[in-house]
Design goal:
The protein is mainly beta and 156 residues long. The protein has 2 helices and 11 strands.
Length: 156
């Protein structure tokens, strides 16, 4: 996405209106709307069409959370499959292998946030409109997101 480079500092005060983001990324079929970015946390809303997902991966330096806004996420959390729906909060501590998918026929939306912010916003800048999954995995590893090898998780 064209625009200003994200340089993290203190979390700025203010309101990000509903249905908006201060920056928007398209990553392999998902749309991510940046809601807030600072040194200590990074928040983004996702719009996930049916059949999309993020394969099993680990954030070795960040805790990640999802507050489900709409639809049902199918989740892989440290060896187990489960689901989360509207109003549920999903907690994924750093180092925990996890994945999320929209395996329904409706869209899903969630508010995601990570703490500390790390380099996830910068990664989304690099992944915007990228169509090659292998390049997504390579760039992610350079930004502290480690994907598990394909086939290592049944059902992923």
């Amino acid at each position: 996405m064209a625009g200003e480079e994200i340089v993290l500092g203190p979390l700025p005060k203010g309101i990000t209106p509903a249905g908006a983001g201060t920056k928007v990324w398209n990553v392999l079929g998902h749309t991510y709307f940046m809601k807030a970015a600072g040194e200590t946390s990074f928040a983004f809303e996702t719009y996930d069409p049916p059949g999309t997902g993020v394969p099993p991966h680990v954030h070795p330096t960040q805790d990640e959370h999802i507050y489900v806004l709409e639809g049902v996420f199918t989740l892989y959390l440290d060896g187990e499959w489960t689901t989360a729906g509207p109003g549920d909060t999903v907690r994924m501590p750093k180092g925990l292998p996890h994945a999320y998918y929209n395996r329904s026929e409706d869209i899903t939306r969630g508010l995601f946030w990570v703490s500390p912010a790390g380099r996830l916003a910068q990664l989304f800048d690099r992944l915007h409109d990228l169509a090659d999954p292998a390049e997504v995995v390579r760039l992610s590893a350079l930004h502290d997101v480690e994907f598990l090898p394909p086939g290592s998780v049944d059902g992923a």
